Structures are given as C-alpha cells and as structure tokens.
Backbone:
C-alpha cells in the first residue's frame, strides 16, 4: 500500500469496484478526463492490472539486450516477475520467474548470462527451455522432474522489440502489428544495436496519467524547451494543425525516404498501435540539444541522416522515437494506483564507441530533461485529481485527440476483458 491508498478507497470490496468500473467506463464522457477513482482507487488499480496488464501484450525490452545464448533479463509486471532468456537454439523465451519448488524468484538480477537457471533457494536447476534438469535426490523416488518445468509466458519478437503477454489462455491477436513493425524496423538492423544508456524514473502518478501525458503535446511549449529544439508539436503527418511550410518540408523528406526504401507512412492497428515517421524541425537531424546527430555511426543500412523520428506507439505501455543515429525506447510499468516506473533506453550501433562516436551525456540530455518534466507534470496532475475539487475536464479535440484515443482503447479493452457477466 502506498501512503495515499487508504485515503482513496472508494469501494468496500473488489466485486463492488468491478461493477462500478464497468459503469464508470460505460457512462464516461469520451471527451473528458476520467472520473477520479479510475486514477487513484486501489481496487480499480488492481482491476487495471487484471484486465489490462495481465491480459494484453506488453513491451518489455529489446532483443539486443539478450544477444547471446544464455543471456537473460528480468522485469516485474506488477507482482509478476518475468524472465526473458535466449535459449541454446537462439530463440527468446519468456517464463514466470518463479521456481516450481516453493516459489522463490529464480533470477534475481536485472540482467545476466547463465548456462542453466539455478534457483538461489535450494538449487533446483532448469535448462534454458525451462525444463527442470536437477533437483537433489531428497525429493524422493516418485518425483517426476518433467512435471516441474518453468511456466511459460506468451512471447513474440519483431523488429528488435520483445513483447510478452501474461494471459493464461490465448493471447490477443498481435501478428498484423508485428508484421508492420518488422517492416518499418528493417533498415535499423536491430541485431547490430546496443543499449548505450538507460534510466528508470519512479513517478508518483497513475500509469494512465503517464500515458495521457505522452499522448499530447499541448503541454510541450509550456514545459519542454529542450525537446522543442528539434521536435514538432504535432505528432502525425495528417495532423489538422500542419502548416503549409511543414507539409512542404515533409514532402521533400518523404520523397528521399521513398527513394531510399525507408518506410514512413502512417500505419495503425486499431487504436493500440501506430507507426509513423515524422520529420524533425528543419535543419535538425536528431533529438539533441544542438539538433546534430548524437552518434557518428548511423544505424543499419541508413545513410540519410535526415530521417526525422519514426514514432511507434504500443498501448498500454510503450512509445518510441527511432532516428538515423540512435533509438529511444520507453517502457511504462505500473506499481500501484499512484506509482509508475518509466524506463528509457537509448540505443546506438553495436560498434559505436563511447567517447569516440558518441558521448552518453549528449545522447541522453534532451530526453532526461523531458522525462523529468513529464514526471513533474504527471505528479501534479495526480495531486490535483486526488482533491475534492477535481471533476473530469474537457480534452481539446485538436491537441489531445491522442489522449481521447488512448482512453477509448483503455475503456474498450477493460470492458471486453472484464468478466462482468459473471457477477
Ligand atoms: O514525443 C513524444 O514522445 C510525446 C508526443 C508528444 C509529446 N510527447 C513528448
Ligand atoms: Fe527454488 Fe526451493 S524454491 S529450489
Ligand atoms: Fe511531455
């Protein structure tokens, strides 16, 4: 429980909360921010975890983070520790990071390399496909190791991204998006990238406020001087606010991208996924303080430094900026009703040398500043929402349509996934 949870208990129990969540989502105004309990009630947070984070595909990391056999990474999805490991066939597997003996967490580090997976508690040992290969003789004659393999989690990769889904039965459809993602990421040759820098911010705000904040740039001019050196304030080529100057600038860049076979056209898969390449401000090449590239080596087969930024949205937990010289990937993981972790990773060419080809400080400066600014905005947003004075307010249809789209996706997903009929 965090310090505010008791203050924000709106319901006497989970079933009452479930019924009211259905009502709140069905009766909400889609053009207004959500009713308060959806941003701060601990029961509704639990339902967000059950209906969204335990059932939908989530972005967890990049394939280049587990480049070799036996390389693993761990991630906590709420209370579910997850292990991602590259097996001896080179396939990426995801398991519940939980020992089948008495349930200890198996891998305790964020990243590592192993031959097999040995539990720190009583040394039960699993191979990289999750088969139990060793449990001491003390387990008795009738003990059948085959019954105690690690529990698998749905896992798919495309274009260098790793997605997992905790759903116990079938996972939702994601292949059409993965096909687009692989196609749009092809120029980047993701096997030859590496993480050059990483940050995790703990934000005292509900995860939906973190995503809402990312889905609009209405706040950019008031808060993001570093980002606005290079970023245009609308985030799609079909934005109604696009000026004739922008359209001309876009046209010229898009013609070059077409000649070079660089995918860029807006593609979407429902409201959950969107990919579009957007130019940066004229005369700039990357999201750095001076607009110059952060890395001397371009990525993959890319030669044109003016690739703008390809934005990839994956609801509920990721947005991304793919540029000619570096990539910035973002992952959102809820912790409690009012606590969220935002992890940012900066990727460059695998052979780029720190100090020669890039400086970490220069690489991360703009988004470190932007992330801190966004954290402060989300936290102030949460504080105001907790007040008796809060009532849902109207979104701007031009500046905040991305927020409206996100909440439409969220409401639809919860209403579809929730077993209201069982009540
Ligand atoms: O650039 C981004 O990732 C988002 C979209 C608009 C504002 N925000 C900083
Ligand atoms: Fe893992 Fe006992 S809990 S070996
Ligand atoms: Fe922002």
Residues:
């Amino acid at each position: 429980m965090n310090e505010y949870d008791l203050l924000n208990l709106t319901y006497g129990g989970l079933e009452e909360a479930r019924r009211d969540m259905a009502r709140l989502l069905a009766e909400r105004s889609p053009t207004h921010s959500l009713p308060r309990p959806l941003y701060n009630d601990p029961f509704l947070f639990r339902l967000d975890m059950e209906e969204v984070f335990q059932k939908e595909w989530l972005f967890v990391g990049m394939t280049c983070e587990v480049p070799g056999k036996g390389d693993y990474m761990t991630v906590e999805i709420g209370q579910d520790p997850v292990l991602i490991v590259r097996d001896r066939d080179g396939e990426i597997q995801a398991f519940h990071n939980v020992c089948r003996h008495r349930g200890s967490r198996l891998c305790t580090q964020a990243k590592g390399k192993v031959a097999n997976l040995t539990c720190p508690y009583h040394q039960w040992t699993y191979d990289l496909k999750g088969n139990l290969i060793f449990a001491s003789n003390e387990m008795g004659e009738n003990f059948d190791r085959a019954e105690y393999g690690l529990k698998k989690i749905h896992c798919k990769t495309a274009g260098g991204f790793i997605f997992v889904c905790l759903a116990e039965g079938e996972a939702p459809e994601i292949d059409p998006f993965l096909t687009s993602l692989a196609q749009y990421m092809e120029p980047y040759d993701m096997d030859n990238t590496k993480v050059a820098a990483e940050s995790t911010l703990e934000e005292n705000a509900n995860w939906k406020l973190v995503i809402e904040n990312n889905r609009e740039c209405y706040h950019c001019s008031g808060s993001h001087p570093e980002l606005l050196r290079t970023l245009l304030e609308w985030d799609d080529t079909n934005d109604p606010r696009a000026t004739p100057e922008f359209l001309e600038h876009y046209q010229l860049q898009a013609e070059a991208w077409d000649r070079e076979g660089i995918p860029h056209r807006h593609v979407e898969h429902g409201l959950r996924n969107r990919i579009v390449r957007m130019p940066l401000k004229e005369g700039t090449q990357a999201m750095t303080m001076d607009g110059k590239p952060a890395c001397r080596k371009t990525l993959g087969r890319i030669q044109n430094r003016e690739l703008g930024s390809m934005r990839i949205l994956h609801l509920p937990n990721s947005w991304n900026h793919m540029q000619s010289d570096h990539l910035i990937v973002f992952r959102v993981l809820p912790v409690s009703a009012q606590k969220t972790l935002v992890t940012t990773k900066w990727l460059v060419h695998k052979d780029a040398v720190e100090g020669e080809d890039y400086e970490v400080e220069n690489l991360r400066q703009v988004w470190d500043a932007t992330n801190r600014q966004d954290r402060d905005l989300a936290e102030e947003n949460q504080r105001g929402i907790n007040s008796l004075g809060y009532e849902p307010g109207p979104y701007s249809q031009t500046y905040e349509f991305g927020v409206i789209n996100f909440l439409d996706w969220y409401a639809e997903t919860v209403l579809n996934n929730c077993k209201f009929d069982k009540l």
Residues 194 and 350 are 5 Å apart (CA to CA). The pocket of 1-methyl-L-proline (ligand 1) is lined by residues 214, 217, 220, 227, 231, 235, 319 (CB under 6 Å). The two ends are 27 Å apart (CA to CA). The mean pLDDT is 96.
